[in-house]
Amino acid sequence: MTRNRSASGDRFSPIAIRELATAFQASRIFLTAYELRLFTVLGRGFRSSASVARSLHTDPRATDRLLNALCAIGLVVKEGNRFANSPAAAGYLREGEPGYMAGFLHTNSLWDTWSTLTTAVRQGKAVRRPGTNDRGAAWLGAFIAAMHDRAVKHAPGLVAMIGLEGVGKIMDVGGGSAAFSMAFLRAKKDLTVVLFDLPNVVPLARRYVRREGLTGRMSYISGDYLRDDLGAGYDLVFLSAILHSNSPAENRRLLKKCAAGLNPGGRVVVVDFIMDDDRVSPAHGAFFALNMLVGTDAGDTYTESEIRSWMKEAGLGTTARTDTPFGTSMITGRRSK
Fold it and tell me: Are 332 and 262 in contact (CB under 8 A)?
């Protein structure tokens, strides 16, 4: 028996198994409240459920029961027949607060795709869904906002780990909101960044960059990184959360394309959920493999050995895998001088 199996078996009593089976209920309660903007509408003081329902345009009785369930979870507090945000909800779930967590509308979208997991396991692929560029402005905006909310917190630390000595031009492949692109620009004043992403994503990236006042040092290429040219002359090609969206064959082609765009001595930096060879650890990577199963045509989480082999095929010498403080890992490939 492996260590993982024995550890799991030790902690799962019948009660724990039942709690696992019903854990979705608390998640759904929270996501519904977030989707309705309940925490924002609840505001700073105490309000009756009827008042909240009027503001949300929801059924009064159902809103009262939702608020009571949020109290049971601990995100809302109750005095008499009036409700208020808990300190955590007030600080993190109310729009306009500095600590507002903006990514949960995308998590709400994932509820639908994860509901197809049984079918996806039976057939070995996702239930057919539109591509990222074709799911509509609301879905895409929520997705990019979720990615930005996560990336903007991690980007400065990752950029420091990568190091930018000798780097003058960077390609950010699938750069999304440009959170990492902007962190690169802030870290070194004399470099430029080219962001490559889908045609419907690039305008969103421009909006984020314009808001931060970094427009003059950014340029953009719209296209499909699996089919279109990435350009050349880069000292660093950066791929954060990209490989997991693709099949192994697609990743081989993409890394060869990235390597071809490097200057001599340049680097390809991959940041992703990189799995140990047992594919069990890290645990969040094992979960994310199923997220890719239900949400993409051929995506997966990949092992360190797989990524190293693809980089070797692309003519890149690899460094040691480095685990980040953010639940991801980094592997760097360098083109010979």
Answer: no
Tens digits of residue pLDDT in 152-163: 888 999 999 999
Same domain, 69 and 198: no
Predicted pLDDT of residue 298: 92
Pair 239, 297: CB distance under 8 Å: no
Q: pLDDT digits over 231-242, tens only?
A: 999 999 999 999
Percent residues over pLDDT 70 in the chain: 95
* CATH number, domain with residue 16: 1.10.10.10
Domain boundary among 62, 78, 99: 99
Residue 297 has phi, psi (to 5 degrees) of -70, -40
**Global pTM value:** 0.84
Domain count, the chain: 2
125: in domain? no
Can you tell me the distance from the alpha carbon of 183 to that of 87, in angstroms, rounded to the nearest whole number?
Answer: 31
Q: Is 157 contained in some domain?
A: yes
SS3 149: helix
Return the CATH number at 287: 3.40.50.150
Strands 302-303 and 82-85: unpaired
The average confidence (pLDDT) of the chain is 92
Please tell me whether residue 86 adopts helix, strand or coil conformation.
coil
Closest CA to 234 of 311, 168, 186, 165: 168
Range of the domain at 43: 3-99
> pLDDT by residue (tens digit) across 52-71?
999 999 999 999 999 999 99
Same domain, 187 and 306: yes
Query: Rounded CA gap, 165 and 336, in Å?
Result: 17
Neighbouring CB atoms inside 10 A of 11's CB total: 7
Nearest to 32 by CA among 86, 84, 73: 73
Euclidean distance between CA atoms 76 and 78, whole angstroms: 7
